[in-house]
Amino acid sequence: MTSIDASTMSRLVTRMVRQGLVTRTPLQDLQPRGLVALSAKGRREVREPDPIAKKLEVTAVERLPPRDLAVVKRALAAHVCQPTNGRASRAE
């Protein structure tokens, strides 16, 4: 889970539904909650890198030697993939 409260999460999901990024399906067992899933548009957004983000990524790593870049990638992967025990992950 995240440290976002329920009303904030609800507003975020509602905005994403309006943007066509996710679908929301009410489920009898999860009232008043429901199932939220990526829409086709949302899946495309996740698959296709943002051009600005891609340019920033290239700029950030273009001068790193391959060995150092490998270390950075391993460190980021370890940080991102760690479970957070119900707390939001944040950089130290």
Structural class: mainly alpha
Average predicted local confidence, pLDDT = 82
Number of E-state strands: 2
Q: What is the N-to-C order of secondary-structure elements (H for helix, E for strand)?
A: HEEHHH
Helix content: 40-55%
- Largest sheet entry: 2 strands, antiparallel
List the helices and strands and how they pair.
Blueprint: H1 6-18, E1 22-26, E2 34-38, H2 40-47, H3 51-61, H4 66-80
Antiparallel strand pairs: 1-2
Question: What structural keywords apply?
Answer:
mainly alpha, 4 helices, 2 strands, disordered C terminus, 92 residues, two-stranded antiparallel sheet, 51% helix
Tell me briefly what this model is.
By secondary structure, this protein is mainly alpha-helical.
Write a structural description.
With 92 residues, this protein is mainly α. The protein folds into two domains: 48 residues, no CATH class; 44 residues, no CATH class. The protein contains four helices and two strands, in the order H-E-E-H-H-H. Strands 1-2 form a two-stranded antiparallel sheet. It is elongated, with a radius of gyration of 18 Å. The C terminus is likely disordered.
